[in-house]
Design brief:
Blueprint lengths: L69 H12 L1 H18 L4 H33 L7
Helix pairs in contact: 1-2, 1-3, 2-3
Length: about 140
């Protein structure tokens, strides 16, 4: 199938035999999975270290640089939401900060102060409410 000079090449017809390679009908010889064709060398592998040996030790545990102690933040938040939980979180935060050296000591202190203040105010309000209820229920000796 030769073309006159100057004309673009056309794709081969599917009805013509291929111009090169193996003819139709003959199976191609491909190596099976995992087998190498004869005469081919296996590629070299990288050397492996002996078993039981480890590399040099890495750096030790790093201090967390994520900001202040989470319990200290929770102590300050709970001081306004539920003061007794703020007291518990504040004391736990102070202990963790002393042990680990994290930041947030002032947050825990302010959380404790505000939690104690709001707890005392809440207790005074409850006592006043009970006193008011008792006073309102009393009849001052008058019976009807």
């Amino acid at each position: 199938m030769s073309q006159p000079p100057g004309e673009p090449e056309q794709p081969p017809s599917p009805y013509e035999p291929p111009a090169y390679g193996q003819p139709y009908g003959e199976p191609q010889q491909q190596p099976h999975w995992g087998h190498q064709p004869p005469g081919a060398a296996q590629p070299p592998y990288a050397p492996q270290p002996p078993y039981g040996q480890y590399g040099p030790p890495g750096p030790g545990p790093q201090p967390r640089g994520g900001g202040p102690n989470v319990l200290a933040i929770l102590s300050l938040v709970f001081a306004f939401v539920f003061a007794p939980a703020g007291i518990v979180c504040g004391h736990l935060a102070k202990r963790q900060i002393r042990r680990t050296g994290e930041e947030g000591d002032q947050l825990a202190t302010w959380g404790l102060i505000l939690s104690y203040v709001f707890t005392v105010i809440g207790l005074l309000v409850c006592c006043g409410w009970i006193g008011l209820a008792i006073w309102a229920n009393s009849d001052n000796g008058n019976t009807y």
